[in-house]
Amino acid sequence: MANTILQTGGFVIGLIGVAAVIAATVINNWSTKDRQGDVVTSVYTYKGLWQDCEVSTSGFTECRPLYGILGYSGQFQAVRALMVIGVVLGLIASTISLFSLKCFKMGNTEDSTKAKMTLTAGIMFVVAGLCAIIGASVYANQIVASFIQTTYNANYGEMSEMGMQGMNMGTTYTFGPALFVAWIGAGLLLIGGVLKCVAFKGMHADSKPTYNAVAYKVPAQSRSADEGSERGNREQKYV
């Protein structure tokens, strides 16, 4: 019973994690413009893995697709690749996990086979979660580095408001909602994968064959025949 609960719980949590990672990969709000100190009429900008978008003062949104590979940094391409790998592994693990459930009947599948499928799905969930965590963390590190370089300039130091007028200060970006969705989804994938691996341990122990010791009883006819032969041998000795 406990193994079934762990297996089903790991499947449900992992499936929610996969959905969250897919949503984070598609959403364009990976980094958003920092509005601190901006005027009300300023244009709102946000960036994603596949599009950069701007929202004008009239509320009209315009997005520019990020086509190509060579025009972007290696870290940005690595984030894209890690998120796509996490999504693919998560989908495959969800499919394997579904067929490995005890309540799902698929031909004459043995318990040992379902136990191995459960372990495979658990490992893939964990790997998918690690890919999503690493990808989101690398992107977040880029935002932090860009924010620090944009808001602080060692050559000028602190300047008054009059001194800042006429200078084109760079646009600063902060964490977008998609980053938090990616981290939450990755955490759920890790939890689901661990539950599946724990369930495999119990399922593997239950699937091992057990051998019960059975006492062998000699049939009555053979036992009487043996006793008769022993009695005849004793009589021959005395004769």
Task: Give the arrangement of secondary structure elements.
Layout: H1 2-26, E1 31-33, E2 44-47, E3 51-55, E4 61-65, H2 74-99, H3 111-151, H4 161-164, E5 173-175, H5 177-206, H6 220-238
Antiparallel strand pairs: 1-2, 1-5, 2-3, 3-4
Description:
The chain is of the alpha+beta class and 239 residues long. The protein has one domain: Butyryl-CoA Dehydrogenase, subunit A, domain 3, CATH 1.20.140.150. The chain is built from 6 helices and 5 strands, in the order H-E-E-E-E-H-H-H-E-H-H. Strands 4-3-2-1-5 form a 5-stranded antiparallel β-sheet. Strand 2 and strand 3 form a beta hairpin. Helix 1 runs antiparallel to helix 5 and helix 2 runs antiparallel to helix 3. It is elongated, with a radius of gyration of 33 Å.
Question: What does the main sheet amount to?
Answer: 5 strands, antiparallel
Q: Work out the helix count.
A: 6
Order of secondary-structure elements? HEEEEHHHEHH
Classified by CATH, the class is: Mainly Alpha
**Which sequence of strands runs across the widest sheet?**
4-3-2-1-5
Q: Please name the CATH topology.
A: Butyryl-CoA Dehydrogenase, subunit A, domain 3
As a percent range, the share of helical residues equals 55-70%
